[in-house]
Structure formats: C-alpha cells, structure tokens
Hints:
Mean pLDDT: 83
Shape: globular
CATH architecture of the largest domain: Roll
Helix content: 40-55%
Oligomer: single chain
Amino acid sequence: MKKILLLAMFGIFSLTAPAQSMQFLRTSQSSVQSNTDQDVFTPIGKYIQSGDYEKLSAWFADNLELNIMGAINNCTRNQARLIIKNFFTNYTPKKFTIIHKSGKAPMKYAVGSLTAGGEKFRVILYVKTTDGVNSIQQLKVERE
C-alpha cells in the first residue's frame, strides 16, 4: 500500500513539473519579447541628454554619417565618438527631448530638441536594425 501511495505521489509531482517548466518558459519568452519591443530612442536620448559620448557611441554603426552644424563626415565609430565628445565638451547638454519619431524596421528615425551650452539644437537620428541589432547610421545636429 505504501508503494502504491508513493508511486501515485511521484506521478502527480512528475506531471506538474513540466507544466511549471512551460509556465517559466512562457514568462521568459514574453520578457525577452518586451525587451525587443522597447523604444530604441529612449536610451539614445538619455545618453545625449547626459552627454555620455561613450555610451552613445556604442550605438554607432561601424561607419556612419555625422553632420555637426554643417560639417559632414563619413566616419568610423571611433572618429564619430571623438567628434561627439568634442561637441559635448563645447556644448554641455542640459535637456534633450524627442519631438517626433517615425519609420519601422529596418529603418527608424527621430527628431529631437537639444538644449546645450546655452543654445538650442535640432538632432536627427537614423537607426537601422540588422539581425536584431540597432545602430545609428546617421546623426545630424543643427542650430535651431
């Protein structure tokens, strides 16, 4: 009798374990999905506002077009990082707000307003998604 009771309990526990595993799997998948659905411009905007050129440059494509107040450069990620560092040194960011977003994968863009160094700038970002990875293809900064 004890053996039958023991086998019955073992059977019940072994049937509930896969259900719990499936629930965990569904929860994990939904959290990954919600992370991929996040607005790509939220962290980028945060790094622009804080003047964090290092974290911002991590979003740069290997080669990108950078237009800072009319000075157009097709440059590597490292060159762009130095140019943005110089811009943030000369114009310390105070506030950045996204005022318009559009597009869908693989190409999205946003227009933002940047207050930096006592001046106002318009910032235009083009972000491309390739194999699930977002990268800034073009960044333009112009005085308003």
